[in-house]
Amino acid sequence: MQKIFAGILFSIGFIFLTVTVSSLATKNPTPKDRSAAAGGIMLGVPALAAGTWIVWKEKKKHDDLAEVRQRQLEFNFLTTLQANNGSITPISFAIANQLSLEESKQYLDKKATQLNADFEVTEDGGVSYKFYLS
Predict the structure, then answer these.
(1) CATH architecture of 84-134
(2) Backbone phi and psi for residue 28, each to the nearest 5 degrees, phi listed first
(3) H or E stretch including 74?
(4) Burial letters for 23-62: b for 16+ Cβ neighbours within 10 Å, e otherwise?
(5) Segments making up each domain of the chain, as ranges
(6) Measured between alpha carbons, how far is 33 from 35 in angstroms, rounded to an integer?
(7) Is the pLDDT assigned to residue 109 strictly greater than 90?
(8) pTM given for the model
């Protein structure tokens, strides 16, 4: 809903500012043209500003939620490592954090690279990550 409202405000602002430009683009603007330009500025700029503010607010909200999610993943990752003596599998991490298996593998690969973890391949072909807790 917010995106639609921002789009409407952008459209309104664009229309009014277009009127302003077209009114002032004439060779000899009349007082009526100047009045139309002033009205276009008074209505167009606030509409564009409001649309921009809504988009900025939505982006900030999205970024804040992503940051909270990353902190939650990090906490769950460390808690799981501590509970399992440094051992973790992609499927257990995916289930615990409601991630897809691919997202879980990517996250654990990234952490394994950062923390110099080892990989253990089980007899059934599964991969287990071994992080050293010292």
Answers:
(1) Orthogonal Bundle (1.10)
(2) -125, 90
(3) helix 31-83
(4) beeeeeeeeebeebbeebbebbeebbebbeebbeeeeeee
(5) 1-67, 84-134
(6) 5
(7) yes
(8) 0.67
